[in-house]
Amino acid sequence: MNYVTVEGLPAVGKSELLALLERFHPESVRVLPELVKEIVEREALDLFADRERLSAAIEAALPERRRRILEIVEQGFLCLEESHLGVHLAYSKILGDTGFAAAHDRLRDVLPTPDLYLRLELPVSGSVRRQAARGTPEYDIDDDALHAMLDELDRWHAKRSTPLVRLDADRPADAVVRDVVATLDLTYGARQGTLRNSFDVLLLLGRPASGKSEFIDFMRGLRPEERNERFHIAPFEVVDDFPILWERFVDDDIWEDLGRSRLHSVRCDGNYAVDDDGLWPFLIEKINRAAEPHLSTLDRRTLLVEFSRGGPNGYADALARMSPAILDRAAILYVSVSFEESWRRNVARYDAKKRDGILTHSVPREEMERTYGTDDWHAIAGAPHGTIDVAGQAIPYATMENEPESTDPAVLALRYAAALDPLHAAWRSKADRSIRSTRLG
After folding, report:
1. What is the DSSP string of 213-249?
2. CATH architecture for the domain at 201-440
């Protein structure tokens, strides 16, 4: 299961249960609060009187809710969402809100379909009693309305043949939690059924515009199972030093606006160039710190670390400064293009008329020649596949030729697989040796 929605009568304990699951299963679970309640509180709406405004706000919020659900699933977590549009439809019908009822069929497919609906069941009388105890009269619903709502909700589930599991919530808390944990197949400290056979850390290197971002976009577009099977990449996180570098450029703009000298960069051809080479080791240290929180979850996800370096010792110096905790779990994929091809693509992706920040960044020719005109990768990694020694560790690598440029998914899939298959085999062999060595020790 990847996406589960939890429903139940008011005050049954949905929010409290979900908060508890997220607290004790942080490696496995992410929780999305009830969308309707979130909107009511944010917009200061009256849940019962402002129905038209509420419907409009729900519709506006659905694309972002969809994005958040898919992002959580993509990252390898179980997404637990409190309530769903079917519940809101049931309340709308018994409240006479014909507007949302008319809009529901148009809106229901905006969100992904849950793998499971989990209902926490409580007698209506128990819900009324708990509502009074919690002291939030602005949300209270009486027993007649709740009976009618449950009838509507049951019809909604029956019409759609949803996978609905009912759990008795009128019991001691420990019993309810135990059954929910078992239903969701949660194990303390790890998630069951996670993807295996994948890289822990993949360092994605190459000149600017060599195709690193396109590689990431390609992998994001695959189903997790296909990506793991074909390319050995689990649900993944990305650490990229370019946004950090861009922030330093923006900081320099601010200093300049305040009448101070720029610290790290100069303006160049409508963009920026680095004039402080101390930034390069600084960025590696930032990568080390950004990667650290992800290293404890590598049994379920892959960490992609993306950066470019140039100069006679650019990659050698950068790799030597990387955290041993990263290197111990890493393989390297170098995306190889010539300097002139890098420059051509760099120019092609930059539209000065639409330039509005980092998403349309371009490295100026002056900076390209100074920083990336030479590249030490082929000096330290002479064969298409092999290992390089970094701080006493043998790191498996693959050099993937990425010319000529292609946007054909079939061509890219073959290109990526041809590099990643032997790279993963070498990385897996190193990891297995490390495990055996640890056990023998």
Report:
1. HHHHHHHHTS-HHHHHHHH---SEEEEESHHHHHHHH
2. 3-Layer(aba) Sandwich (3.40)
**Mean pLDDT for the stretch of residues 82-98:** 90
Residue 11 exposed, middle or buried by CB count within 10 Å (0-12, 13-18, 19+) = buried
Match 């897996």 to its residue by tokens: 428
Neighbours of 178 (CB within 10 A): 12
Per DSSP, the residues of 55-112 read HHHHHHHHHHHHHHHHHHHHTTPEEEEE--HHHHHHHHHHTT-HHHHHHHHHHTTTSP
- pTM of the entire predicted model: 0.58
Mode of pairing for the β-strands spanning 330-336 and 201-205: parallel
pLDDT band for position 363 (cuts 50, 70, 90):
low
Q: What is the DSSP letter of 188?
A: T
Dihedral, 354, 409, 336, 283 alpha carbons, nearest 10: 50
Q: Which residue type, as a one-letter code, is found at position 4?
A: V
Query: What number is the average pLDDT over the span 88-109?
Result: 85
DSSP 375: B
Distance CA 81, CA 70 (A): 12
Q: Which two tokens stand for residue 285?
A: 């240290």
Domain with CATH 3.40.50.300 in the chain: 3-191, 201-440
Which of 21-35, 143-157, 288-302, 355-369 is predicted with the least confidence, judged by mean pLDDT?
355-369
